[in-house]
Amino acid sequence: MTTKTKRPFIKLDCGVCKKTNYHIAVTKGKTVENDKLELKKHCRWCKKHTLHKMKLK
Ligand SMILES: [Zn+2]
Fold first, then answer.
1. How far apart are CA 11 and CA 27, in angstroms?
2. How does pLDDT run across 23-51, given as a tens digit for each residue?
3. Which domain holds residue 14?
4. Is the pTM higher than 0.85?
5. Residues 3, 26: contact at Cβ < 8 Å?
6. Which residues surround ligand 1, an ion (CB under 5 A)?
7. How far away, in angstroms, is 9 Cα from ligand 1 center?
8. Could you tell me the CATH number of the domain that includes residue 42?
9. Is 31 among the domain residues?
10. How confident is the model at residue 53 (pLDDT cuts 50, 70, 90)?
11. How many Å lie between the centroid of ligand 1 and the Cα of residue 16?
């Protein structure tokens, strides 16, 4: 079991409907310095590609 390492999760919230569509597990060794990254992702609620904002949890 390798559950001792804390892996922060990043949430991707749709900028239009504010719903959380994606959860990304940050792999160890990768530092996420910018917590205001934005990605164009498909939102299943808006049914189109919208700007998603990353949120560190
Ligand atoms: Zn949306």
1. 14
2. 988 776 655 555 567 889 999 999 999 99
3. 9-26+36-56
4. no
5. no
6. 14, 16-17, 43, 45-46
7. 20
8. 2.20.28
9. no
10. very high
11. 5
- Number of domains comprising the chain: 1
Within-domain flag for 1: no
Give the pLDDT score at 30. 59
- Distance from the alpha carbon of residue 40 to the mean position of ligand 1, in angstroms: 11
**Model pLDDT, residue 48:** 98
Distance 49 CA to ligand 1 centre (A): 8
Q: Is residue 4 a part of any domain in this protein?
A: no
Question: Token match 């559950």: residue?
Answer: 3
